[in-house]
Amino acid sequence: MKVAYYKGCLASLSAKELDTSTQALAPMLGIELDELESVTCCGAGDIHEAEPDYYLHLNARILAYGEATGADTLMTICNVCTLNLRQANWQLKNDDELRARVNQNLETVGAPPYSGNIEVKHLLWLIAEGDGYETLKGVAHKGLKGLKVAPFYGCQILRPSKILGFEDPDRPHSLEAIIDACGGEAVDYPAKIKCCGFPIIQAREETALGELLQPIQQATEAGADVMVTPCPLCHLSLDAWQSKLRERTGRDFQMPILHLSQLIGVAAGLEESELKFKRHVVPVQPALDKIEV
Amino acid sequence: MTEAADIHSWDGPTMDVALKIWRVDEDGERDLVSYELEAPEWACLLDVLDLIKDRHDGTLAYRKSCRMMICGSCGMRMDGRAVLACKERMKPIVEAGHVPTISPMGNLPIIKDLVVDMGPFWQKIRDVKPWLDPGYDEASERERIVSQQQMNVIHKEALCIMCGCCVSECNAMEADPDFRGPAALAKGMRFVGDARDQATVERLNEYNDEHGIWDCTRCYFCNERCPKGVDPRDAIAKLGAESVKEGVDWDMGVKHAKWFVTSTKTTGWLRETELVPKTQGILSALKETKFALALARRGKVPPPGPIHVAADVDEARNLYDLVKEQGRDGALGIVQGEKALAQIEHVLAADPDHAPASRISPEESGGKSAGSEA
Q1: Residue B319's closest chain A neighbor by CA?
Q2: pLDDT above 70: percentage of residues in chain B
Q3: Which of A237, B11, B86, B241 measures 20 to 30 Å from A3, CA to CA?
Q4: Are both B128 and B59 inside the same structural domain?
């Protein structure tokens, strides 16, 4: 299937490894990526909070360019992009008056108008729906050889469920099913659906680190070799800020954090040039050595 | 329900209910106790607790009053989710063969069993000054009419019954117990957004404090749990938007948010490298040099310039100017989307048969999530 590919900010910047692994993996999963060029940041919740009317217009513009590709689906690879775009999409699709005003503004600046004909879906959902798990079993030919993987969903792919609406926000299972289909062993722990602290990690670092500690500590204590997340913001928090937990707790966790596309990519035999584990702060290779990858 | 629909005496079909309750005594000793009892099919969780107290164990402690989702007394957790006991029907849970675990709400001290100390909750509500400040001492002789449109801005916030379900699961409050929290901030928005209130800027300056608006981590648990549709996270976002509109922009959180606006207006994409100094100031950012260098070695801090500029970014720049001219600043920008969001029917794509009973807690399912067995 062809999708409009909206990679968002981080996959263009500090999380380039998310983009390269997604680009390499997508064709193997039967997903043809039509990358959007004339688009901006979704606002990451920050513009929704600072200038909400501008947030709506920016996201309408992204949806309009997505629709212009002719695809039915705009694919995201970030929780925050997913919530922002789905929220705006619902508002624009279900309020003709609002959409008419936004479209008039889009046309004034020379952008295409939005008719309301595209669905926003995260890569995780595209894999998890239909017979995706079966496809995945074929793709993941190298397997994860029993690697213990702690899934970390993060917030904005689950809540608010009335806008995200893919799976039970309290007992999600798509990541576990993917880990299973790739031959890994899913490790369960309560904080897998909680916040990583990223949205406030710069403005309120103490509060954010208090949140970050829970998933890292629980996944470690549950015996995980690695953690996997569908969100590059969670990834940045879990991977890059993990060292700061040492000052708080005296513990050196060293928990490798994988993007979803990297975890599947390992099982599918992607190259290091596509996985780019060298860009991680916490080394991934020691965990992969356990399964001789 | 028939005329005899009293939980102590009823006719009609019954069901066998099983549940576990975390009992907590005055010394904080905890014990998970199982109960099995017969209850009418129409029973909600609160009815079942009443039956237990009446017929099995009179020492069970919980709060209740109205039994109809308006007093906000019976907040507690079922399988880890904060709920109103009077809103949760037991029949689908029984039919699924599930035995739910009931426990007290989180983020508040436990007094006994399912009763928490609401003292800290009420103190935070008081701290936002939850009363109207009309800016005059004596009312004028004529009534002051407020339009429906003006009241729509705070319609959702006014629905709050102060049950504490949002606070129970607030992730930021777990990490910072002094966080003002979703209930108090939603109450604050109820007055900031009130056209009659004259203390807007004063309120916003207070709510922008260390434990205020920008301490919210956007986990959206509050929106998920609120039994009345208040959507406290959205109320907090409205307070942020009102802060920007009123020029209350001294906190690092609001500077962080405004940098995203600047980024999209200039390059289209987030100017990530500059985000730290723009949020924390140059001096604070310099203290983080060692940390930043460690990230830079891994390519996590993209080097400054040449700046990646999105194609057709002029459109985004012009959109900003156009939108600002139209003046839907502040909370209005969020309120305008509420009509559409109110129409959402809650159906989960991956789980169309979704029912509360499918939410089996990890300890109940031997460590596996409910869906993985499906």
Answers
A1: A109
A2: 89
A3: A237
A4: no
**B133 lies in the same domain as B105:** no
C-alpha B154/C-alpha B152 separation (Å) is: 5
- The shortest CB-CB distance from B218 to any of A45, A91, A171 is to A45
Q: Is the pLDDT of residue B5 over 80?
A: no
Task: Name the A residues in 56-85 with CB < 8 Å from any B CB.
Answer: 56-58, 61
Q: Which of B210, B299, B337 sits opposite A91 (nearest CB)?
A: B337
The three-state secondary structure class of A258 is strand
Contact (CB, 8 A) for A154 and B216 = no
Contacts of B302 in chain A (CB under 8 A): 13-14
Give how many domains chain B has, as a whole number. Answer: 2
Instruction: Mark whether B127 and B76 lie in a shared domain.
Output: no
Q: How far apart are the CA of A112 and the nearest CA of chain B, in angstroms?
A: 10
Q: Is the ipTM of this complex over 0.90?
A: yes
Residue A149, H or E segment: strand A148-151
Nearest chain B Cα distance for residue A279, angstroms: 5
Nearest Cα to B341, choosing from A66, A89, A76?
Answer: A89
> From the CA atom positions of chain A, what is the Rg in Å?
19
Residue B338 tokens read as: 């509420």
Residue B3 lies in a domain: no
Would the CB atoms of A167 and B368 count as touching at under 8 Å? no
Name the closest residue on chain A to residue B226, using Cα atoms: A160
Statement: the pTM of the whole predicted model exceeds 0.90:
yes
pLDDT at A33: 98
Q: Are residues A182 and A263 in contact, defined by beta-carbon separation less than 8 angstroms?
A: yes
Provide the terminal-to-terminal Cα distance of chain B, rounded to the nearest Å.
34
Domains and CATH numbers, chain A: 2-123 (1.20.1050.140), 131-290 (3.40.50.11810)
Q: For B311, which DSSP code?
A: T
